[in-house]
Amino acid sequence: MTIKIRYFASLRERLGRSEDTVDFYEALTVSDVWYRANADQPLPVNVLASVNMDYVALDSVVQDDDEVAFFPPVTGG
């Protein structure tokens, strides 16, 4: 099974890429997906995540062919 991962804004710049894919064979949460793709990078504090364009909690379980996206916290002014 495969998950597509997208990174936005400062996360994209920090990681040096905008997308990844992760193959898996067992249930994964959104935070598991981050660590599969970024084993050497801690999950940023207050990061926002979505699955198939719907915001979700980091403990949400992903399914085959889902798209998981990570966003830095958004502030306005």
From TrEMBL:
GO terms for cellular component: molybdopterin adenylyltransferase complex. Pfam families: ThiS. One of its GO terms (molecular function) is nucleotide binding. GO terms for biological process: Mo-molybdopterin cofactor biosynthetic process. CDD domains: Ubl_MoaD. The keyword Nucleotide-binding applies. Keywords: Nucleotide-binding. Belongs to the MoaD family. This is Molybdopterin synthase sulfur carrier subunit. It comes from Crenothrix polyspora.
